[in-house]
Amino acid sequence: SIYTRTTDPFNPARVAEILRLVELGPDLAEAQREEVRVMLSSYADIFALAVSEVTPVEGAVYAPKIPEDVKFSTKIHQRPLTQPQAVYLHQQVDILTEAGIIRPIHPRDVKCVSP
Fold first, then answer.
1. Distances in whole angstroms, Cα of residue 49 to Cα of each of 2, 8, 32
2. For 41-95, how does the pLDDT look when each residue is reduced to its tens digit (9 = 90+)?
3. Contact 51/101 with Cβ under 8 angstroms?
4. First to last CA, the chain
5. Which residues touch 9 (CB under 8 Å, ≥6 apart)?
6. 43 in helix, strand or coil?
7. Which of 5, 63, 85, 107 could form a disulfide with 81 if both were Cys (CB 3.0 to 4.6 A apart)?
8. Given a cut of 90, is residue 100 above it in pLDDT?
9. Could you tell me if residue 8 is left (phi over 0), alpha (psi between -120 and 50 degrees) or otherwise beta?
10. pTM of the predicted model, to two decimals?
């Protein structure tokens, strides 16, 4: 597997995938391109190849300071999704939930909906 950021970040297959995904502009000479490839390889541990490889930053918490008496709109302004869109969206939500990026919430607990 190439998804070894936390167990083996310099796994050759993982490094090869990172190098494959990073696009280098045509304005670099071949020597410069090789220098960039070497640098990318040496920093392979900072690249996440999937959402599940993103690690939380310790102490980083999003805590907006919104007064208790402020009311936001909770009306959803969204057109219905087509079947393929719904399938894709649900897959992405599952991926983000499994990675711990988002969590389920009961509709009554929603305080604000972004358009």
1. 8, 13, 24
2. 999 999 999 998 998 888 988 888 888 888 887 777 788 999 999 999 999 999 9
3. yes
4. 38
5. 44, 45
6. coil
7. 85
8. no
9. beta
10. 0.70
Distance from C-alpha of 91 to C-alpha of 87, rounded to nearest angstrom: 6
Six token digits for residue 108: 């009554």
Q: Which residue is associated with the tokens 């389920």?
A: 104
* Residue 114 pLDDT class (50, 70, 90 cuts): low
Which pLDDT band holds residue 113 (cuts at 50, 70, 90)? low
Question: Distance (Å, rounded) from C-alpha 4 to C-alpha 78?
Answer: 38
Nearest Cα to Cα of residue 16 among 44, 39, 36: 44
Q: State both tokens at 99.
A: 């990675």
